[in-house]
Every structure is written in structure tokens, then in C-alpha cells.
Amino acid sequence: MMTVRERIERTEREVLSPRAALAADTRGRERTEEPCSIRTDYQRDRDRIIHCKAFRRLKHKTQVFLAPEGDHYRTRLTHTMEVAQISRTIARALALNEDLTEAIALGHDLGHTPFGHIGENALSQYMPGGFRHNIQGLRVVEHLENGGMGLNLTWEVRDGIVNHTGEGMPATLEGRVVRTADRIAYINHDIDDALRAGILCFEDLPAEPIEVMGRYPSQRIDYLAHDMVESSSDLQAIRLSERTRGLMDQLRDFLSKNVYIGSVAKTEENKAVRVLRSLAEHYQENPGYLPDEFQPGDSGELPMRVCDYVAGMTDRYALTKYREFFLPHSWMVE
């Protein structure tokens, strides 16, 4: 009798594009497991990511704005959810594997540090070749989660996580959808957050992209998703049209100059760098303070294990540990 999983796999083969990554054809996991009777391997990967500790910590990690006053600014978790939504819409329209796309999208930022990209820069001096959140994300799912056993995800999901940014390109079209959807999401929600914060005025925004793609984030995301589907319909590549890519680059360049570098949103960054570097140096000088699961096997592992621990912290936990180690405590005589 055919299981539910086998029925889903058969439907994928009948309905999805010949260029889609089928769950039944996965390159598999590093450790062989018995298949689930009701979920495909990509569905299981999605569920493992959602239920892991690193995913839950994303809700208290900065996206762009450090310690914002207000409930509506994006965090690393809400960014991840927006990327997953955009990616799923595009994957479904292109008849690609939606489950694989969603799993990659939900896992793509698991390696991010506290305090956004500034945290990544702060820890780079302790890692040969620098600290890269995509590489750390792979380390999270392969080695750090589940008591050091990792999540044992499929090859395709791990490939999508490590190649969602940087020089490497994902091997699957689903991974390439996430790579572009990530940029669509952060460009538009960072504009929205900057306007909310009063860092930008609407009149500051580049005229041509706004005129063509729309005044509101939802309009621009809709425009970009449509363009991506239409431009990628032959599935020879996942791409935006040349004109639309140029418009999106205009917005990205504008954000780099007016929000990501030198704006009031970045005035606290030196303090964040000091917090993370102070913690990293403290743990390297006093490795006994590291939790048991982060204790190095030998002295050569110490910088990596320190970065594993500090990078996994939420913003508020990093500040708590900084206060514990470096600020005086109140006391009283009984």
C-alpha cells in the first residue's frame, strides 16, 4: 500500500517542472534515516529547522536597527518569515519544489550573530578568513544543534543555506529563488523600517524605482516577484529582468549610503562591537566560563568554539553577559 509520503513524491514527479528538485531524488543526508510515512525529506527538514533552538533565537536578533523602540521593526525572525513567503510564492509559480524552497528560506539566517551584520564584522578577527553567517549557518545545522549532533538535513537544504549569499551559487533552482528573495525582502523592509524610524523621508527615495515598482513595500515586492517569475519562466536561470535588476540595485545602493552606513540607526554600532569583542576575548582568556557543549577539544579549537557560543547569543543575552562580566554589581551588607 502506498504511503502518504510516496503519494506526495509521485505528485511532485507528475506536477512539478522537470528542473525542480524532487524529494524522492534528494542526494540524502549524512546519516541515513528511515523515511517518514507522511512527510517527504524536505518537509522533515523544514520542520526540524522550525523546531530548533537557533530558529527560536532569531526573534531576539537585530535585523538592521539596534534596540529599536517600537513593536513593528523587523527582527531576524520576521525577515526570515518574509523571505519564506516571497520564496514560496515564486517557487509555486515556477512549478519548483515549494517544500525545499521553504526549508532553505527558513534556515538561511540561522548563523547570524547578535546585532545584525555588525556582529559578523566584530567576530571576523577571531576566525581565519573572517566570520561569515552563511558558513556559520551550515555549522549550526551540521554540528551545533541537537546536542552537537546537528539536524542531519538533506544535501539540498544545506547547499541552499551556505550558498544563499557569497560567491557560491546554490545547486538547485529552489536555492537560487531564496537567494534573490532574500534581497527582495530586506531591501523593501529596510526601507519601510527606515521610514518608520524617521531616518528617511519618502521624498528621499530614488524616484525611478518608486515610480516604476510602487510607493508601498507590498507593491514593490509584488512587482519584483512577478518580474522574477516572468524572467525565469524558461527555468534556464533564476533571474530578474535587466531593467528591474537595475532598479533594485538603485534601492540597495541608496540604502547602503543612507541607512546601512553613517545614519543615526548605526550610531550604537561601536558599542555593539565592543560588547561582542569583549565577550569573545573574555571567553578565550577564560574558557572555563563556556558551557560544557562549547568546550574546545584542544586549544586550536578555542576561537571557533568561542565564536560558536557568542554568535548564537541573542542581542539581549549578549548584553546580559556583558553586564555580568564587565559592569559592577550592586551590593549591600546584611
CATH superfamily of the domain at 37-266: Hypothetical protein af1432
CATH names the topology of the domain at 37-266 as Hypothetical protein af1432
Spatial gap, N to C terminus: 74 Å
Major β-sheet profile: none
| Count of runs of 4 or more consecutive helical residues | 15
Q: What are the secondary-structure elements, in order, as H or E?
A: HHHHHHHHHHHHHHH
Assign the CATH architecture of the domain at 37-266: Orthogonal Bundle
Output mean pLDDT: 94
Radius of gyration: 21 Å
Which ranges are low-confidence, i.e. pLDDT below 50, for 5 or more consecutive residues? none
Roughly how much helix do the residues carry, as a percent range? 55-70%
Classify the secondary structure makeup into a structural class: mainly alpha
Task: Write structural notes for this entry.
The protein is mainly α. The protein has a domain at 37-266: Hypothetical protein af1432. It contains 15 helices and no strands. It is flat. It starts with a helix and ends in an 8-residue tail after the last helix.
Summarize the structure.
The chain has 334 residues and is mostly helical. The protein has helices at 4-15, 41-51, 53-57, 76-93, 98-107, 117-123, 133-144, 155-162, 173-197, 207-213, 217-231, 242-260, 269-285, 302-312, 315-326.
